[in-house]
Amino acid sequence: MNKARIAVLVSGGGTNLQALLDAEKAGRIPHGTIRLVVSNKADAYALTRAERAGVETLTFTRGGCGGQEGLEAALAAALEEREIDLIILAGFMSILSADFTRRFEGRIINIHPSLIPSFCGKGFYGLKVHEAALRCGVKVTGATVHFVNEIPDGGRILLQKAVPVLPGDTPQQLQRRVMEQAEWVILPEAAELVSSEIIKRKDLA
Ligand code: GRF
């Protein structure tokens, strides 16, 4: 069967990448195949996870590519060369330019650890998101998978899952619960959803 060719972009530990690799192995992404993992950090543990799974890895750092523009040019060339259909940002800590997001419109998705439109946009990343949720006193938070456009965390929402905030939660405890109960669940689901749409479109072409 025809499968959508997926690239996963990472910067850190790669637990979301791991959830994707595990889901593919378990047959939960039948319309997609992870072909490439790209990091913008040379020491990202996510690269080790990819290598262990036998997936090709590339590292493009801003410094090594002569800035963000150079990085995006190298990235776009690598993606096109490998005929990548779907780009998944899984803890990728770099904001992509409007030129880049337009070039791959409708083919880039991102996971964000809150229920967008709460606690999102520029400056809301990592633990900061959960610290803000706790400061506000929300009783429910969660994760969102959305399409990526030129506005940080601003593209159309694909999937969301809610997670309770418990009394006495630390930002770390809340982050862990959001990952386990929401991020690692909906990111593979979204990967399958968009992959099957891409394949449907290709079959019609
Ligand atoms: C996750 O919380 C993700 O939502 C955010 O960055 C974190 C990445 O974690 N964008 P990991 O690298 O997937 O472990």
What can you tell me about this protein's structure?
By secondary structure, the protein is of the alpha/beta class. The chain has one domain: Rossmann fold (3-Layer(aba) Sandwich), CATH 3.40.50. Helices cover 42% and strands 21% of the residues. It contains seven helices and seven strands, in the order E-H-E-H-E-H-H-E-H-E-H-E-E-H. The chain has helices spanning 15-25, 45-52, 62-65, 68-81, 98-103, 127-136, 171-204, and strands at residues 4-10, 32-39, 56-59, 86-89, 108-112, 140-147, 157-164. It has a seven-stranded mixed β-sheet, with helices on one face. Helix 2 links the parallel strand 2 (32-39) and strand 3 (56-59). Helix 6 packs across helix 7 (171-204). It starts with a strand and ends with a helix. The protein binds 5-O-phosphono-beta-D-ribofuranosylamine. Residues 12-16, 46, 90-91, 111-113, 126, 179, 183 line the site of 5-O-phosphono-beta-D-ribofuranosylamine (GRF).
